[in-house]
Amino acid sequence: MRIxxxxxxxFLSNPQSGSTSIRxxxxxxxxxxxxxxxxxxxxTNARRLKAHFQEMGWDWDEYLKFTTIRNPWxxxxxxxxxxxKNPNSVWHIPAKSVSNFREFIRHPKIVKASQDSTINKFAFxxxxxxxxxxxxxxxxxxTELPQVLKKLGIPIKEIPQKNxxxxxxxxxxxxxxxxxxxxxxxxxDIEYGQYNxxxxxxxxxxxxxxxxxxxxxxxxxxxxxxxxx
Length: 229
Fold this sequence. Notes:
The model has no long low-confidence stretch (mean pLDDT 89). This protein has a five-stranded mixed beta sheet with strand order 3-1-2-4-5, with helices on one face. β1 (2-4) and β2 form a beta hairpin. The longest helix has 24 residues, at 202-225. It has eleven helices and five strands. 29% of the residues are buried. It has two domains: 2-198, Rossmann fold; 199-229. The chain is an alpha/beta fold.
């Protein structure tokens, strides 16, 4: 979270959605930086911060407010790896207490955290109205963020890569069950960001082709013999 009374902006840090990189850019222009203390926690949501603005007598509508959104399937893999390597992360205990990503997704703390971090709970009011001006897609941040910063009069040369983790494409970590589970947990984010599950796992693609061939073969046998399989 970053707030500037001079530049009139509020940046809300949606966890595991590129927020650390944007906070780094905004540091020198911010009057208030996030901490572990209420109400300025790193990942405080729009509802809580707007209520604080009202208490302080600050006009929420005078500020340009923005946050980010990320492909949920990619985001969950990012959470897993971030938790594995960062002891201070809220994801650390769940990540270290399980043997694989599949179990991580099923961990009660992860399920609860995921339910609480959907974009509608993070950036929208209880009445369903969006409380921010811009929700930037992390996948398009290189083009979308400079446009917002230009409106604020903030120059930018490049976007630093912070807290990024090296791992295979997210599709390698999923099977059909875990893919559907994350899809259900983040249905709102998927619809808002118009996300699709992009499969780059060659093994999965090969299995799909094998299944198609088997289906065709069985259909031909059924046509010839009349026996169904």
